[in-house]
Amino acid sequence: MSHERMFELIKRDTTSKARVGRLNTAHGAVDTPVFMSVGTQASVKALDPRELREMGTQIILGNTYHLNIRPGMEIITAAGGLHQFMNWQAPILTDSGGFQVFSLATIRKIQAHGVEFRSHLDGSLLFLGPKEAMKIQATLGSDIAMVFDDCPPHTSTPRELRGAVDRTVRWARECREQPRSPGQLVFGIVQGAANPALREECAKELVGMAFDGYAIGGVSVGEPEPEMMRAIEITEPFLPANQPRYAMGLGTPAQLVELVARGVDMFDCVLPTRVARNGTAFTRKGSISVKGGAYKADFRPIEEGCDCFACQHFTRAYIRHLLNVGEILGLRLLSVHNTRMYLKVMEDIRAAILAGTFDALRREFATNYIPTQKVLLARAAAADR
Ligand SMILES: [Zn+2]
Fold it and tell me: Which pTM does this prediction carry?
């Protein structure tokens, strides 16, 4: 597929770098900017495919590292691929496992063509590199595969960062040469932390390999927000304007608005379902702890004006009660609300860019959205995505 057919740039905002586009994949089109729900273990935690579709979910994430360990590729092959296995007939993006190997597993040895590590589950010795990661993603049959990269922690020394960028570029070239499943797109991942020279170098090397899209990695690794924004700002100018850009593992609703303004098209984040499991709900004014005593007799919906199933049918008092007595439904209803909230923010962003009112929406979020420390900490601990 040519780049023009694969990604159509529909409208650019005049007040920022925001844009509206359409990404065409083997399982259908995705309107961007898009939020992708995280289904690490072939399931978006607590939500089924029917409700995901009803909420407006366009594309979900699966994960190479986790699915390769359990259920294993024999089962996925026998099922006829990941779409069939989990009964999700819309687009799927798979992460390569690089992030998990470097954050979750105990690394034994970084070798020329991959990493030898111990499984976080049972300590068994495993190996994952460009070849293995692409083979697993071809077996999963995802619509978008990610290259296997070296994702270092934000506390890395300059020397460690240099090594990570070199390996990321070398491994990207190896990934580029591997067979794909029919129609599968492959995205490169730019590393280099907050170092402008490394980001530029890594981006230029990857763009030279002509991937279908580009991700900005090495964000959401525990760095403070200004550093994260800076990593995006110093990378974006080196990514082709006519191809999709994806910021991995981010962020809060207010951060997504700011990242769209910086030219990012695609996002994934565990926050909507993760904080739901802590009894927290996202609103346009920040997050609230529904579990807290303040809502004991509050018979309003989680968020006034929200069109989600939870807000249309249930009250804060009822959901708080469910959470307090440990009923699964409480967590499910919060997951429904939070996921729909994220999707609605993206729908509003797309509509605002098309209508030429994105700047007003951006200012509304900057003024009204109060981030809470608890949520930012939950993002910092996002290693299990
Ligand atoms: Zn709601």
Answer: 0.96
**Catalytic position from the list 122, 212, 268, 298:** 268
Give the pLDDT band (50/70/90) at residue 120.
confident
- Pairing between β-strand 34-38 and β-strand 106-111 as defined by DSSP bridges: unpaired
Known catalytic membership, residue 143: no
Q: Give the DSSP H/E element, type plus range, for residue 116.
A: strand 114-118
146-148-151 Cα angle (round to 5): 105
Please confirm, yes or no, whether 95 is among the known catalytic residues: yes
For residue 367, report the distance from its CA to the centre of ligand 1, in Å. 21
Alpha-carbon distance 210 to 212, whole Å?
A: 7
Model pLDDT for residues 236-255, shown as the tens digit of each residue = 999 999 999 999 999 999 99
The count of residues in the chain is: 385
**Measured in angstroms, how far is the CA atom of residue 333 from the centroid of ligand 1?**
8
H or E stretch covering 28: strand 28-32
* Average pLDDT in the chain: 94
